[in-house]
Amino acid sequence: MQSICTLESLKPSKQVNNLFTQLVKLCILPSFIDISDLPVEVQLMRESLISLCGRAEGFLELEFANILTNIPEPLEHLDLFPYYGNYVKLASLEHEILYDHGMAQPKKIAFLGSGPMSLTSIILATNHMQSAHFVNFDIDKSANNVAHQLISSNAELERRMKFETCDVMEMREKLGEFDCIFLAVLVGMNKEAKMKILEHMRKFMKAGGILLVRSAIGARGFLYPVVDEADLAGFENLSIFHPDNDVINSVILVLKPFI
Q1: pLDDT tens digit string along 105-134?
Q2: Residues 170-218: pLDDT tens digits?
Q3: From CA 35, how far away is CA 25, in angstroms rounded?
Q4: Which of 78, 237, 79 is nearest to 153 (CA)?
Q5: Where is the signal peptide (predicted)?
């Protein structure tokens, strides 16, 4: 933690990459830590670490998105991204969970917090949901521009995928347009912000709409914000999955009830 906090820059470098790789390896070890039981000072340290991890992740994705957009057929080389394999595993898992609950081929999907690479949307659209239309939302216009440039080399994918710059808390009627919404783990960096976002989505999603929330458990909660089942009041809980391998994120699937 101290080594990461004293870094002069979080942009990709040998030192930055090594430190965060060590942190990830440490956090995915079997752990029985209950984040809610941690002392206040540790909670504050954890929130700071999550913020640093989020910023470093953004820099890493942006660097590789820019690299890919400058080579021919960039979508054929997504595996250049160091964590591409993790995204493939997570997207496959999420599709399997959706399939188990009758949502294998939703018509219209929103991904909130898609970033400069939009890897989950690309993998799902290419490998699992070949007829679905995706709208990727991010608060950062430059991230959306790079992500759109990345998929523009594929006419069929570009036809089914849009990018919009928007704060999720400013989305109202638009949230009601989607059969399925993915909430990226870093949308809402602390408990208070995450709770406000979840309540906002419960209010404006359409009845019968599916929400897939990414979370974390145990020591993985030092990398990403944690969402508990109790945080999803007003939704019907369909499934909770906690990984025990190198996939970091937990997956919570809920439905907005009709009543």
Answers
A1: 899 999 999 999 999 999 999 999 999 999
A2: 999 999 999 999 999 999 988 899 999 999 999 999 999 999 999 999 9
A3: 18
A4: 78
A5: none
Question: Domain containing 58: what range?
Answer: 1-259
133-138/108-112 β-pairing: parallel
User: Shortest CA distance to 118 belongs to which of 171, 54, 58?
Assistant: 58
Strands 180-183 and 236-241: unpaired
With tokens 């990414």, the residue in question is 214
Asked if residue 195 lies in contact with residue 233, where contact means CB atoms within 8 angstroms, the answer is no
Is residue 82 classed as helix, strand or coil in its secondary structure? coil
Q: Where are the alpha helices (DSSP H) in the chain?
A: 2-5, 14-27, 40-69, 84-100, 119-123, 141-151, 155-160, 191-204
Closest residue by Cα to residue 17 from 70, 69, 83: 83
Q: What is the CATH number of the domain that holds 145?
A: 3.40.50.150
The 10s digit of each residue's pLDDT in 211-245 is 999 999 999 999 999 999 889 999 999 999 999 88
How would DSSP label each residue in 204-252? Answer: HSPTT-EEEEEE--GGGGGTS----GGGGTTSEEEEEE--SSS---EEE
